[in-house]
Amino acid sequence: MTDRTALLRDFYLAIDEKDWRRATAYLAPDCRWHILANDVTDAASVTGPEGVAEWFQSALGGIETRQVIDQIADRDDAVAVFTTATVTSAGSASRSEWIDVFRFAGDQITEHVSIQTG
Fold this sequence. Notes:
The structure is a single chain. This protein is of the alpha+beta class. Helix content is 26%, strand content 51%. β3 and β4 form a beta hairpin.
């Protein structure tokens, strides 16, 4: 069985490092990616690794992110990740809390939903 905890820790690190190729390597070819509107980005739904990479670049490419994983809850084919994020844009930093829910098929992410909680 895939160590989803290690996979997701590297996934978040890749996003913080702006390594879109590494981050999207964990995605299934037909993955669906959903972001609810929040303090950082507008709502979005995209499909496929290329669509997600384009979204990463447009939404996160111009800001600095540092995501700290607070907890990972792994159940069957789904994983919930609770994070605290610091986002720096134009020299100003803000902190927020998130829940990301991932659905997996084997070792690939097939669906994602992100919700800002605080």
